[in-house]
Model the fold of this input.
Amino acid sequence: TVRMFEETFNSVKGKFVEVFHILFGNGEAELKLTDPDNMLTSGVEIYIQPPGKKLQHMGLLSGGEKALTAMTLLFALFLQKPTPFCFLDEVDAPLDDANVERYVGMVKALSDKTQFILITHNHNTMSIADSIYGVAMQEYGVSTILSVTLEQVARAGR
Amino acid sequence: TVRMFEETFNSVKGKFVEVFHILFGNGEAELKLTDPDNMLTSGVEIYIQPPGKKLQHMGLLSGGEKALTAMTLLFALFLQKPTPFCFLDEVDAPLDDANVERYVGMVKALSDKTQFILITHNHNTMSIADSIYGVAMQEYGVSTILSVTLEQVARAGR
Amino acid sequence: MKFNKLYLHGFKSFVDKTTVDFPDGITAIVGPNGSGKSNIMDAVRWVFGEQNAKELRGADMEDIVFNGSQKRKPAGFAEVGLTLSDIDEAVAAKYGTFSEITITRKFYKTGEREYYINNRKCRLKDIKDIFMDTGLGARSISIIEQGKVDKIINASPEELRFFLEETA
Amino acid sequence: MKFNKLYLHGFKSFVDKTTVDFPDGITAIVGPNGSGKSNIMDAVRWVFGEQNAKELRGADMEDIVFNGSQKRKPAGFAEVGLTLSDIDEAVAAKYGTFSEITITRKFYKTGEREYYINNRKCRLKDIKDIFMDTGLGARSISIIEQGKVDKIINASPEELRFFLEETA
Ligand SMILES: Nc1ncnc2c1ncn2[C@@H]1O[C@H](COP(=O)(O)OP(=O)(O)OP(=O)(O)O)[C@@H](O)[C@H]1O
Ligand SMILES: Nc1ncnc2c1ncn2[C@@H]1O[C@H](COP(=O)(O)OP(=O)(O)OP(=O)(O)O)[C@@H](O)[C@H]1O
Ligand SMILES: [Mg+2]
Ligand SMILES: [Mg+2]
Done:
């Protein structure tokens, strides 16, 4: 299993850089082993450097950069081995318009192998969905769910 | 100071209910003392019941309901004694379109006594601002700030 | 493996029998604050076997059962069912089915818990076995709760290694 | 009391001298992810006297000084100034001014810290005294950081009492 982990690590590492460039444009990204001499127990660490910035610890990243970095790893793992199903609850909330576009682009690209369920208030995210469900409480305190169209959602928001 | 706290508590309590009805529509809300017999040391607790729902502990509230409840208390305190300055960083991120409208309505109503600085990605929030600053990194890693108009922001987002 | 539909009855704000179909591709779930969107994700994590009420935003397990509203009385139990298809052949054979399988979890306010696979009682372990090696589970990285997107970058190096091992 | 303008130099991503005017009413700050919006709020909390680097999303205080970019070398110090007007008469008299007052904080990578009021050196306590009884301060309830809006409802009953006392 040591060989297997090493192969998986090297493969995901490459995909992490690939997805990072799609979501962030330029910049540098790397997955590193905390203890490369000991493949059996070594941990994994994320290093990223947004375009043109210096390498720094993750705490200094902005809210949106953190969310995008998390998505970078998630999507790299999906490229390595798609899981049947992915459920994301308002992960687009901290993203600006340009980054929402890149995020939904990746979701679209991965959706032939993975079913995505996206809870969102963002109209740009809704617009890429194959189907939309509206959850409401017509009777106070009681949730119901029904299939809706993008036009119906746009009208309800007004 | 016991008398003073008691007066302040009763006054804020009333304002809390008032603001709650503006932000949530109906429902019940209450500020309670944890130890009413001991005004000198008693703590304060928030009880809210969104419209038509049962009273429950705060953990069961949704992301948006929690943010709106926090704003209810903040704005009630401002009605009691306006602070000169209020700085809110993307507090509108979890709110749906209808609640963003109510939130900005309250900010507008309070802005004659308090200067508000709102960091936001939400175009409805930007539209109520008296002035808008755009922060950018024309040179990578270096922030600059300049005054912008709503049209310029709308164009940049496309 | 494919998710076909989710059935909710008495789970949090879904007091009435509710069915949600999951078509292929991308499904968006929208709606006002407090309408019940995140409760659907809680239902999925619960039927996968989540045992800690705090992970479902409750103080204790009773909090997942509908606790009443202005016009409705509290429910006595919560039930969630998940129908899957394209499952692993060995699993399908075990439960005598060619394609679909439905996992169901029930919790009564009196404390009883029941698990079913295709309407036959089973243990929680049986449900977990179905998802072995798929990267799915109550706390899998492919389910990200509201406000917790940082859980991936705040993870320890050991946790990150575990995420990678799940994809090996 | 009114906030007139904020001056930044070498503070986080604001390496060049930058001035931000704060007009009356409502000001919106917009811009792409990572452009420096929340850094402005960190600057305000720092000039109010925040002493804990973690509250400013840093590991230690050095993290508030510009640490370089592709084309720029790291800065040697960080400086933030805040100009206020309509201040309390007693305070204005103390600093020999009729209307405006500027509080300044400087931090050198070598470790020195300096505080100024209208270009005269002072102590941190002097800056904090200016905001006495206004409900303002580095950790006041009227400054809500990104993702921390729940801090109000997760506050303990004692903390909530403290917030009320500030408005007495
Ligand atoms: N056991 C329960 N019985 C009845 N209602 C419940 C129960 N548990 C939670 N709720 C209700 O569910 C609501 C929250 O639902 P949920 O968190 O799914 O909202 P949401 O649609 O995700 O909203 P947001 O957009 O703000 O995140 C609460 O208002 C609460 O009243
Ligand atoms: N000491 C420092 N020197 C240089 N750059 C820094 C320093 N500290 C933080 N930064 C930079 O500031 C950026 C984050 O800025 P900030 O958190 O203000 O973004 P933001 O505009 O609020 O974005 P978002 O919309 O995603 O919340 C980081 O990318 C980081 O590179
Ligand atoms: Mg939610
Ligand atoms: Mg920010």
Summary: Chain B touches chain D through 67 residues (CB under 8 Å). Helices of chain B lie at 2-24, 63-80, 97-110, 123-126, 150-157.
